[in-house]
Amino acid sequence: MKLIRVKRDSYDADLRQDGLAIIELAICLPLLVGLFLCLVDLGLGLDTYFRFVQVARDAAALGVHLDGLVVGSVCQTQTTFRSNGDVVVSPGGSGCADAKQLLIHDRANTLAALFPRWIAGFEQVSRVDAAAGSAPWPTIHYAVTAHYRSLLLSQAGGVGLRIQAVGSISDTGAKLGLSAADETMLRGQFNLGSCQSITPGTVLSQGLLINLANTMCTNTPA
Amino acid sequence: MVGQYTASREDGATIIEAALVLPALLIVLFAFIELARILVIQGLLVAGAKEGLNQAVKITDIEQDSTSTKYNAAKTAVINTAKVLPLATLLTDGAGSGWASIVAVTLVRPGQGAGTVFDQHPLPACRSLGGAGSIAELMVACPIGVRVFAEVRLQIPFAAPLRLRGEAFGFREVAFTDQDVPEVVR
User: Fold this and answer.
1) What pLDDT digit, counting tens, does each position of A35-61 carry?
2) Which of B78, B83, B96, B53 is nearest to B149 (CA)?
3) Across the interface, which of B130, B174, B180 has its CB nearest the CB of A201?
């Protein structure tokens, strides 16, 4: 009888150990999975950040070469990448006071069209400041807030990262101008902030290409 | 008798458990090492492509007609630049004994869609001249790119080589003149 009791005690102890192991696993597994997702998320965020640093540089670089930008003009646009591959661009905030300035945003859209699907979209704000104080030339300020689809943080439109670039506009030298006809066409297409259908792939006189989107505000939000 | 070891059934179980788990652990460790190797090679390919792109956005000859000698020289220079960093580290050109072999480097130029497989621009609007008057004009609007392809020799028996691609896209730099530089800098 004694022998049987000893065996039973041992069996009970084994069962308790099993239960303990399951509880430990239940505690550790979510932590481990969470840690793994954090690492993947960090990677996605860093990748998005570095991609948009180049976007900001390229956009500002075009801005300093555009001829005749209106000092004091502010442009805001929002680009959304849908999961079906569609790109939707809509005016953000107060829209845009100078249609030509949208070409800066167009350049960012062109580069971003090559990016992977985990990037959900981005907002762009560009502003032209007058020469003042220590800045002998007008200055273009360009900021982009990129959103990526996070695995952990379920935020509508993805998690935002803000990247900024600043360039100085000299008033002479190599400039990319627009013909009067192109400028009229731009103003007509974008109507300075309202929702318009536009034709992607339109090439302007100086080789500037309108890649802004398939549609602008004509689709329902993603 | 104190401290004398007595063999028990538990010891046997431990050995069997170890025999079962150890191969699995080794496979996981091996997989992590292989993954790290692939990531290092991928990083090298992207770094090489960026080096090539950095040159491509500055060379004026890259805007020449694709049949011209100057264009081909510029293209070759860009391709060679893209190879320098990967080849100086862990990769080889063609069949070699390194971690991976570079099998192709391509320059992706706007307005050059027809022809070879790798010269196709990812943006359809940039594949042909369309309404733009010249390649130079189209290059203001479309990004130029460099792609580096490599084959990784995996350490997995009977596995086919893994093909990796590193690429970088950016816009051509508009040439500055003396007048662009503010007087305070000159």
Assistant:
1) 988 898 888 888 888 889 888 988 888
2) B83
3) B130
B123 close contact with A: CB closer than 8 A: yes
Please check whether residue B149 touches A, CB under 8 A.
no
Q: Which of A114, A174, A201 faces B169 most closely, judged by CB atoms?
A: A114
Q: Do B138 and A172 touch (CB under 8 A)?
A: no
Q: Inform me whether the C-beta atom of residue B35 falls under 8 Å from chain A C-beta atoms.
A: no
What residue ranges do the domains of chain B occupy? 9-180
Q: How far is CA A9 from CA A4, A5, A13, B140, B148, in A?
A: 9, 6, 6, 82, 66
pLDDT band at B115 (very low <50, low <70, confident <90, very high): low
Query: Given strand A139-148, what is the order of strands in its sheet?
Result: A87-96, A74-81, A119-129, A139-148, A159-168
- pLDDT 10s digits, A146-171: 988 887 776 656 677 778 777 777 66
